[in-house]
## 1
Amino acid sequence: MHQGKVIFPQEPWTITETEVNLAHNQRCETVFAVANGYIGMRGNTEEGYSGPEGYSLNGTYLNGFYDSTPIQYGEEAFGYAKNRQTMLNVADAKGISLWVDGEKFDVLQSKIIDYKRQLHMKQGVMTREIVWETRQGKQVELRIERMASFVNKHMALIRYEAKVRSAAAQMEFVSTLNGEVTNQVTMGDPRTGSGFAGQVLLTEGLRADGAIHGTAQRTKNTKFVLVSAVNHALNVEHESACHEQGQLIELRYRCEAAPDQAVVLDKYIAYFASKDYEEAELWPMAVTALTDAKAKGYNWFRERQEEILADFWQVADVSVEGDELLQQGLRFNAYHLFQSVGRDGKTNIGAKGITGEGYEGHYFWDTETYILPFFLYNRPEISRQLLKYRHSILPKAKARAAELGYEGALYAWRTIDGEETSPYYPAGSAQLHINADIAYAVKKYVEVTRDEDYLLQEGLDILVETCRFFADAGDWIEGKGFCINGVTGPDEYTAMVNNNAYTNLMVKDQFEFTVKSLRKLEQTAAWQGVQARYGLEERELEAWTTMAEQMYIHRVGQLIGQDDSFLEKAPWDFANTPREKYPLLLHFHPMVIYKYQVLKQADLVLAMYLQGHRFTREEKVVNYKYYEPLTTHDSSLSASIYAIVGAELGEIEKAYQYFMQSARMDLDDYHNNVKDGIHSASMAGSWLTIVNGFAGMRHDEEVITFNPTIPSAWTSYTFRVLFHGSLVEVSVTKEQTTYRLIEGCPVELRHGEQSFMLESERVCEISKS
Ligand code: BGC
C-alpha cells in the first residue's frame, strides 16, 4: 500500500531522476543533496540555475555554522529567548560551467538528448549523466559526480568529465568559488526562513597559494571565520587563468579535446571554520588539506566513501522482501540520516539535516527521541557523539535554568550552540520534556552499550542537573502529588498545561534511573568523587525518589488525560475541517487550536511506547483508541509512533498504513515541503517502526525482547542490531523468526515469553495470537 504518487523509479540502491522538472526542482535539490555530517550541499546544478525565480535554492551549509540576530518581539516578557540563530548558506563552491566551442552548457537552455541525475546510496555520490547537443550538432557526453567526503569532514569533491562524440572540440571549464551568498528570508511559514534579509557572511578577502584559491569570511554578529578554498586537477594539457571579481573567484581551464577523449576536471573543495580551529590556522589547514587531497586523487576519496558506506550498510540495512518501493524508501532514509548526522561531538543533527534551510538548521528533541536510537543499534559511537554535544552545551542549559530562577539545567528547545532560540514559548520553550528526553537517551545509551565509564565522565552531569531542574520546577500539590505545571508536551496543538502525562512519566523515569545509577556508585570507590563533584546529599536522592513515586498523572478510570484539563475540552470538529485546512497551524490561530481536543502529534501514545512498562495492556488499548482519532499527524514525527504502538496492540494493518506514511514521506514528498529539507526524525521513525514496531523490540538493562509480527504485504524482513557489543540479525517471515549471532559474545534474548542465550542461531515460531 503506497500513498498514491511515486515520484522516483523503484530501484534498490539509487534514486533516479530522468527529466528536469522545474516545478519540483527545489524538492530534487533536497533529495539529491550530498552531505557528510558537516558539509551539506543541495543538489544544485554545477552550471548554475537560469530558470525563473523561486524554483531553485542554491545552498551549501556547514552543520553548526551560524549567525545570530536579536529576536524582534512586538511585546517582550522576562526570560524570552533573546537571539535567533540561523545556519548559514556559505561560500558556493559547486560552480563549474563547461563551454564547448564557445557555447555554454546549461541543462535548462541547451538541447538535451539524454538526462539522468542519481543519488548512489552505496557509493555516497550524486551523479548527473547528460548528453548535450551543441548548436553545431556535436554531441557531448557529460558525467558529473559530487560527494561530501566521509573520510574528511572538511572536504567535498566534484569530478566533471566531458567527452565529445567522434569530434574534436575546444573546451573551457570555468570553476567558481562565490562568496556572495545569502539565506532565504521568511515567507510566512513558521517552519521556514531566517531573520536575515541580506548577506551576513561577509567576505574579508580572497586568498591564493599556488593553484589553491580561497575566500576568508566572517559572520556579521557571531564573528566566526570561515575559509573556503578550492584546488583543481585537469587530466589533459591545458591553459589556465584566474579572475577575481569582488567576492567571486573564477578559474578557467582551456584545452583542445580530441574526438571521444574523456576530459576530466577534478575539483577539491575545503571548508575550515573558527568554530573548530584558531583563526590563524584556517588558511594553512585548508592549503594542506587541498594539497594532500590532490596528491591522493579523486579515486582515493571515492574508494574510502564506498568502504565507509559498506560498513554502515552491513549493520544498518533493513531488507524487506515483497515491497521494492518500501525497500528503496528505507534505504533513502537511512542514507540521509547517515549523511546528515554531526559526529564530531560539537554538532548534532538538524530537523532538516544539512539539506535545506527549514527550521534554520536547529537541533530539537527529534535527536534523542528518534534519531539517536537509530544510531544506537548500528553506530553507537555516533550516539555517543550526539550526547557529547549535549554535554558540551550543559553550561548554557545551566545558565538558562538560572535565568528562569531554577536550579539545575534546562536544555534549549531549539538551538545550534545551546542558547534557547525559540521565540514562541507556548509551543516551543515550554516543552520542558526536552530535558527528560535527553536524560532518557543517556539511559538508553548506557543500557545498550554498557559504557559505564560514560556515566562517570559525562552522563551523570546531564542526569543530575536535569533532575535538579525538575525537582525545582515541579510543585507538591495537595491531593495530587508531585506536579509539573505550566508546560507543553510533545503535542504542539495543546499548550501550557498542568501535568502533561508524557512529561511527567519521562521525568519519573529519569529520577528513578538517576537515583539507581547513583545508588550503584555508592558501593564503589568512585562515590566520594561523585558526591563531591555534585555536592550531593542523601536528602536530594530521597527527594527525587519520592517525587518519582508520587508523580501525578491525571486518570479517569482506564483513560489517562494527556494533561489535567485535556479531557474537559470539546473535541475538534474534524467532520467540518476540509483537507486543505491541514496542517491546522497554517490556518487557525493558536488560541483556537489550543482550546480543543486535537493533537498535532503523538503525545500519550509516545509515552506508551517509551514508558510501555508503566501501562497495562488494557490501558494501552483504551488510550490508543481515544487519542488516535484526535490526532492530525500534522507533524511528521507522529505517524511512526502510532505505527509502533499500533503494532504492539495487534493492529498490524493500521500500523502498516501509518508506517507507509513515514517510510517514503520524503522520497514521495507527502508533506509537500521536502524543498525545505528532509524530515530527519520521521526518517528515523521508519526504522524504529520496523524494529520496535513490527519486530516489537524492547530492552532493559539486561535483556532484549522481541515480539515479532509481519504485515500481510511482506514475505519477510531482516535487520541487524548491536546490543552489548554483539551483532544480532533478526529475520522474520510469516511463520518464524530466526535470530543469528553475527559477531561478538552470546547474548540473552527473549522471544515473547521465551528466554534463551543466543550462541549462533535460533529459530522461533511466530505467535499467531
Ligand atoms: C514538531 C516538533 C519537532 C519540530 C522539528 C514540529 O513540527 O511539532 O515536535 O520537534 O517540528 O522537527
Note: The first strand starts at residue 14 and ends at 17.
## 2
Amino acid sequence: MISWLPINNDSDFSIHNLPFGIFSIHGGLKKVGVAISDKVIDLAALADHGLLKEIGGLAKSVLINEYLNDFIALGNSKTNGLRDHLRLMLTLESSPLKELPGALIDMDQVIMHLPVRVGDYTDFYSSIEHATNVGKMFRDPENALLPNWRHIPVGYHGRASSIIETNIPIRRPKGQVLLADSPTPLLTPTDKLDFELEVAFIVGKNSQLGQSVPVNHAEDYIFGLVLFNDWSARDIQKWEYVPLGPFLGKSFASSISPWVVPLEAFDAFRVAGPIQNPPVLDYLKIAGKKNIDLNLKVYIQPQDSKQHLVSNSNFKYMYWNMAQQLAHHTINGCNIKIGDVMASGTISGKDKNSFGSMLELSWNGQEPITLANGTTRSYIEDLDTIIINGFANNEYGRVGFGELRTQVLPAN
Ligand code: CA
C-alpha cells in the first residue's frame, strides 16, 4: 500500500497507523487530527469539504473538541471505518485530499494536547520481571513474588487529575521521607525521582455497573494505546506505601504521549504472551494472541547534552495482558467509562538493559549508570529530560507513537 505522500520507512506514522490526537495551531481551537508521516490531517477541514460523507459524515462538534472522548464514543467500527477511508484517500492518485488547502498541516506547526479527558486511571503491575526485581530489592531475594502475583493482575487506583501530555515539565515533588539514620521523617524534595516505562490503553466503550466484561470480549472495550511514564518518588513511596499502597509517591504526575494508536493498528504485531503457571482462573483464560511485539526505549537527556539510551524493552514481555487486566477490573461489577486510562505497570525484560525504571537499572542506587557526557545517574536529576518512544516494526511496516518527552524542574 503506497501513499502519494512521501513517508519515510522509519516514520512511526505509516499508512498502517493513522493514530488520533488533539491538536491546535497558532493558539486556535483544539481539533481532532490524524498523524501521517510528518503531517497532521485536520478532520474538520475534510468535513467542511464533504470528504467524510462516504462514511456518513462526522459532526463538527465532535471534530472541533477539547478531547477525543466524543469521537471515541462513535465506536470502534466508525473510527476504524474513518481510518480505512483516509487510507484510501492517501493512496488514490486522483485523491481530492491532494488539492485541499489546510487539510494536511506540517507536524512542526501544531501543538499537541492531552488526547482524552481522563475519568479514572488504574495502574497495573503486570511485568513479572519488574515485580521480581522490586521483590528482590525490598523483600526476599528467594521469594520475590508475593503469593497472589501469579493469580491476580495486581493493580491500584491512581490519580487522573495529574495525567499530563508530552512537553509539559514536572516539578520535583516534596514529601515525607524517612532517612536511614533518622528516627523520624522529614518533609523534603524527593532524592529518588524515577520514571516508569509503561504502555496504557484508553477505554473506548462504557460498561454497566454490576456487569463484568468477559475476557475474550475485553478488547472490544479498548480504543487505543499510548506511551505512559508513571513518575515515581521512591523515597516517598517507601515510607508511605504500607499498608494501602502507592499514594503521593505516584500521584504528582503521569505523562502520556499525544497520539492514541488504535488497537487494530497492532493486529500485525500480535504475539503470544509468557506461559502462565499456575493456570489462571477461568475468568482470566484467553483465546488467541493477546500480547504485542512493541519496542520501547527510554532516554535521559541532561541539560545541554545529547540523549542517552538507558532502557530497551518490549511490551511483549508482559505476563498479564490488557484483556486480562480489563476482565479482572470488572469482575466485581465495577463499571468502566470512555476515556479511562489503564496502564500496564513498569515494563521490564530479563536483561539489565531492558529494565523499565531507574530503581532497577541502578539497583536502587547501588550501580549508577554512566551517561555519554560522563555524568552518572542513580535517579533523575533536575533539568534532565526523559524521552520515551515506542514502535512496532516488521515486514508489514511500522506503527509507533512518536515521542513522549518530559523535563524535570527543581522543587519549589
Ligand atoms: Ca506504575
Note: The chain has two domains: 20-112, 121-409.
